[in-house]
Amino acid sequence: MKKVANIVSLFTLVLLAFLAGVQEAMAEDVDFDNIFSRLESNRRVYNRYNVAVKRPTERDMWMNLFLERSDINTAMYKENEYLIGLVTDVFKAGKVSDSIYDALADCVIEMEDNRSGDPFLVEEFMKILIPHYLSRPSGDVERKARLYHFYASTQHEIALLQCDDAKACSNEFYRRTIALADSLPPEKMWPVVKSLTEMAEIVWTRRGYNTLAEARSCVTRLSRLINKVKVVAALDPATLSAARKAVANFDRRLIHEGFLIDSSIMPHAEADSMIDEHITEYETMENPELKTFCIKNQLELYKGYITADSALTATMKFYREKVRIPEVVSAEDMNRLQIPLFDLIYFNSLSDIPDSRKYDNVLFLCDEIIKLFSAIDDNQTDNSFVPVLIKFVTYPHLIKYLTLEDKLRFMAELMVKTQVATVAHSAHVAALATRIVDGVSHYRPDLLPVGIDPGQGGWHEFIRRAAIYHDLGKMSIVSVVTNEFRPLTAHEREMIRRHPSLGVDFLGIDEDLLKFHDTTLGHHKWFDGNGGYPSTYDNTASDVRVMTDILTIADCLEAATDMIGRNYSPVKHFRSTIDEMSQQDGTRYNPEILDLIRNNPDVFDELASIVDNDWMYIYYDIYETYFNPDDSTGVVNKLRRDKL
User: What residues of the chain score a pLDDT lower than 50?
Assistant: First the structure.
């Protein structure tokens, strides 16, 4: 027996060695260059369709574009799933040579060169690469530095979606990159220069990435590097220009991007002295650009040298005469244009002009903000527009002058321009949920909440509005929500699960919305309270629990039967979806609501009709409301006349 065991053991060792050889041979055969080329090509196609659906066109062409986009996305999703699997499977078993890791690293680095670094996909590849390179104290330091920098920058993009873990990771790997400076020759210093440039940004200090002293230290080191001939000679023009601007503009940014937003960032006496110096400097400039003009007015207003009225008048005149939002807004355009808009909103709020004029100004600025986001080039690599979007929607100096209808229209416009499928989904859920409430009112009125005022329009209007607002939290993670061209990563799925909690934050823009707290927070909780998310919320204790139960059923029903909005699962028929949901009644779904749907043909048939037919009319309505090029009334007038 021992001899047999030894033979088996020997055979096992030989087999394992053979399989390891096969694995390594397979790894050698995988064409990473072609895989990454296809991933990049698919991303560009996806982005072109995303841009196209925001451009004015004829209605039927717009609808056909959505149908075509759905087919293309489904095909890309499947191909990208296969391609990503080819890469990850190489590293799942057996010994993989250093050269294979280097080949993958070079393809990932090329994504940075091409500005095509989808942050969450990069994160998945970095899970393979970073442990390998961290375990290699020697080796190609340049490749390691470039990987570390790219990992830091893409983690920063994820951190912009309110992810603290990504913020910490980004901070760590920027520092790791900078620490490699002494091991790099001058002509290979690009990742260090880039990392120092990005760590010198004042917003990093304001967000707690580093101290002001550390930021100044980065500027000092950066200044020394870009004064070395060999370093400068090897830098591309864009990197060198950004580094020089970071050094030259640090003190100015410290004031207008730091102190004026958070005065605790530095001593007031030091800030006051710097502000006077900057005002004098700005006054000597001829033909300043709008951003500079706004900052000068902001500083003079802070010091009391001018009034808010004069700041508003001068800046608004400058803006109306000289600013045109481009047809396609890049990340750089967003950074350039958002500050003047925020400043105008602030000047308007502090001015002594009549409220009626403030209201007119706010409507104009809302229109400009919507135009800005209508033209944004969301290429799935830059998340910097997301916190800007959130700040505009919740900015107290803006929303305090808007009526509830204005606020809702403003949010709806921005959601349509950034995630039209979510708006269509919410409208479809509203149609389903209101029909279910009609059925409950007719057949089971005893299920309706007792002792609670649902407001004007009764429970029918309450559930309609609850459905419209239930996914507001997706604005905070819009770049994850709109990622439909490849499977979501585990991290992205984790972030998606945060959208009910994030949605509650948006309800705070108006006290009339606070009554939708439970439906917004609880629409992904299971009926029995034991499953779903958020785990900390107890939906079973809610006074409007049955409304949340109805919303949950309508939400899941729409998601399962969505004709063109979801490419990660096959479309299901209404009847089969109800049958599947019935298998979880009493646990995931309210059994009495499902019984009502199953046992009343009028409710069942009307819901089936909504699923089968109304999606088309919902998209038609979105088109007529937000995209019709023949509607010359403009967003400002829509804000005046329309209700959500």
Answer: 1-26, 632-644
